[in-house]
Amino acid sequence: MKITKYSFLALIVALFLSACEKEFLDTFPTTAVAATDALASTQNAYAALNGMHRIMYTQYDAQGQAGEGSVNIFRDLMGEDIVYPLASGSTGLIGFMRWQTHRNVNDGFLRFVYRFYYRLISNANVLINGIDATPGPEADRKIIKGQALAYRAWAHFQLVQLWGKRYNAGAPNSQEGVPLLLTNTLEGQARTSVEEVYTQINKDLDEAITLLAGYTRAGTAAKSNINVNVAQGFKARVALTQQNWAAAATAAAAARQGVALMDTTAYVAGFNSVNNPEWIWGSRQIDDHNTFFWSYFAYISANFNSTVLRTQPRAINATLWEAIPASDVRKKMWDRTGATVPVPPGGARVPYQNKKFLSQSSSSSVGDVPLMRAAEMYLIEAEAKARSGDNAGAQAALFALVKVRDRRAVQSTNTGQALIDEIMFNRRIELWGEGFRFTDLKRLNLPLNRNGIPNHLTALVTVRDIPAGDPQWEWLFPQDEMNTNKAIVQNPL
Question: Are strands 448-449 and 315-316 parallel, antiparallel or unpaired?
């Protein structure tokens, strides 16, 4: 990654525009904020950190580019569980569903994803490398550095999952990963091996967990901040991807400590509020930060009045929905006929229509973006234990979640692959639309298989099969990066 003039200015502007404290806005000029100013005090550094929180959901160059929520949609469109049901409807973002966008070096959405994560990394580096000398309370320095380290680890993890080959615990993992950016530089950086990237990710997370111990979040946007639970959740995700089952189970259990699963009433409320007790991490979006037709809810909700959703409502893989027990509250997240979905004015109704996600109203796409929930941690713990042969532990972890979702559920007696299949089924229905399906298929070395799914229209998806291990599982580096960074090597075309 080369921090170009454009990228560095984006860093500076992000630090300024995203600052929430009025004093910060009053103190510094409206045209730019130097990194040295951001590190003039811990109060200023907190403002810069708030800017990073806002980067997570703010709008970028085009509609459909609104931070991590948008990338979550992209990754799920590349799986088999989100369906575009209408041949005559909007085809916005269809390039991801067709496995084209991530392989087109000139595509603006590919460039957005790459720049988004490195923008977070470059912001994090300013704080990580300068906060120790910043005037202010030591406790504040620890909180700021801990969150910045967690951000840097998480962003590198997201990048290496997309641009690198899958991690294989039984191999050296010397394959090309992504540029590992620990200091901001104008020199183009070569790709670091997958193993080295994961080593640094874990190093950053371990330090973040230490620094964030005892930190209590507060305020209306508290869950936008990264606390020790979130950092442990990152650790669990990374360990699961590395097939380090014991570490994944341990970190997942730590991440959900003190976090209750939501009840069935909250489950059908729209997945749009950080006040939901189950959310461990989420982007709090206030009304005057409305991202309009850019936002997550403009592309995933049931009710926002955009052409994208009005003419092409999101649906679930019909085969997957039919397998959900009728007594499970999660089955209510989609409607078999579309009759009960709160569609926008003039909106279409389709079979298996989504109503899991609801925006503020048909005229407002405001909504808090879910980034980590306790349910995911139960599923990570269950999967890790099942794959390590701890059937009883996996059954217990899975049942702790399922019994809250389904009043008639009984604890599974499955073992081995049958238990793993049951856990993965629950993962698919629980985390639908939250951005995990593509990376789940890739980390498990599974193929994409959309065959036999009756509501996937061949004319729309065009792609039904991608073999496991195919070069198409690796995203291409944007042409802008190839042009400016002569040290980088492109993935196989």
Answer: unpaired
DSSP reduced 3-state for 6: helix
Domain range spanning residue 356? Answer: 285-367
The Cα–Cα gap between 304 and 344 comes to 6
Residue 343 counted as domain residue: yes
Number of alpha helices (DSSP H) and beta strands (DSSP E) in the chain: 21, 8
What domain count does the chain have? 1
The amino acid that residue 465 corresponds to is D
Residue 347 falls inside a structural domain: yes
| Residue 346 maps to a domain | yes
d(CA 45, CA 366): 27
Q: Is residue 4 part of a domain?
A: no
Q: Which residues of 244-267 are buried (b: 16+ CB within 10 A; e: fewer)?
A: bbebbbbbbbbbbeebebbeeebb
Residue-wise pLDDT for 360-419, tens only, equals 999 999 999 999 999 999 999 999 999 999 999 999 999 999 999 999 999 999 999 999
Phi-psi region of 67 (alpha: psi -120 to 50; beta: other; left: phi over 0): left
